Amino acid sequence: MTESMLTVADAARSYGSVPALAGVDLTVATGDLLAVLGPSGCGKTTLLRCVAGFERLDRGAVTVAGRPVAGPGGHVPPHRRRVAVVPQDGALFPHLSVADNVGYGLDRAARRGGRIEEVLALVGLAGYGGRMPHQLSGGQQQRVAVARALAPRPPLVLLDEPFSALDAQLRAELRADVRRALRADGATAVLVTHDQAEALSMADAVAVMDAGRIVQHGTPAEVYRDPATPWVARFVGEAVLLPATVDDDVAVTPLGRLPLRGPAVGGAATVLIRPEQLRLAPTGGSVATVVRQDFHGHDALTTLRLADGTLLTARTLDEGAGLSAGAQVAVTVRGQVRAYAGSA
Ligand SMILES: Nc1ncnc2c1ncn2[C@@H]1O[C@H](COP(=O)(O)OP(=O)(O)OP(=O)(O)O)[C@@H](O)[C@H]1O
């Protein structure tokens, strides 16, 4: 079994009457990247700051590499936790060269041993050591911040929305490169983000957070395909949620009888269908009217209305091309669906 590099147990922290953390349990396996994904204000940054040691817990405990750093035994200050933080804006020292920024936390032996060049190469900046931060683009500055965090080989690296200030294309490139660098260096990391695509594409595991609690912890595929609640379903991607009646392993829905997977529920339920499960054809399914189509280049989201007024969103490729508002199509569902007890 893989050992945990980070354990957070029943962590609670309030600001006045606001419970920013309301009992968080979390583990990160050694060598993994965990994404903490949640909407603004759910407590992500507070969690990260409590792990780093910038904030104290009201209750609970944090263990890093088997060593208690917060909890009943006391509060280890940030600089003694061996936890590296990559902040949103990089926060490089402006008066130090790239090499000196990266080498800041290193002892002389490590500096001489070539670690600075090694981590700069890992983040794609070999040969940039002599530059000053202001001579770098925003994306390059973030790469330096990641290299600086990795340099002393900390047991844990925390990344706080590190790509949020970058434009979309740069962000995608940097995500992939930073993921590769972390993996190549064997680092264990926690990434805090409100961006589902970032969490699902980068992480080994995703902890979905809402109102100070972790509401689901699983692989990216698990939280997308098998969300714990309708709220998680909506938060991690486009979701079609339909009223249903469950009868054994079949849900009776406005789109017909659909096979179920996941935990059994009985009676009135809500089913989750992902837009890519919906297939459109000229005939041979439930009849729907096209309301509108939002073109995204690689695909399109087509909003449809069933005869009973139910709205659906289908992700379409060629089969939905050029459908205009008012057109009639037949909708079928591919694969199994997940049901939740009660109505949405
Ligand atoms: N220093 C503080 N003083 C008072 N309230 C705070 C403080 N820090 C955070 N909060 C409150 O705690 C809650 C959680 O905040 P936190 O910054 O952890 O959320 P977040 O998920 O990181 O949000 P965002 O994505 O917007 O940064 C919010 O309601 C916030 O207003």
From TrEMBL:
Keywords: ATP-binding, Cell membrane, Ion transport, Iron, Iron transport, Membrane, Nucleotide-binding, Transport
PANTHER family: SPERMIDINE/PUTRESCINE IMPORT ATP-BINDING PROTEIN POTA, SPERMIDINE_PUTRESCINE IMPORT ATP-BINDING PROTEIN POTA
Gene Ontology annotations for the cellular component aspect, listed alphabetically: ATP-binding cassette (ABC) transporter complex
Entry protein name: ABC-type quaternary amine transporter
Top EC group: translocase
E.C. numbers: 7.6.2.9
Span of the signal peptide: none
GO molecular function terms listed in the Swiss-Prot or TrEMBL record: ABC-type ferric iron transporter activity; ABC-type quaternary ammonium compound transporting activity; ATP binding; ATP hydrolysis activity
Organism: Micromonospora kangleipakensis
Start and end residues of each ABC transporter domain: 6-236
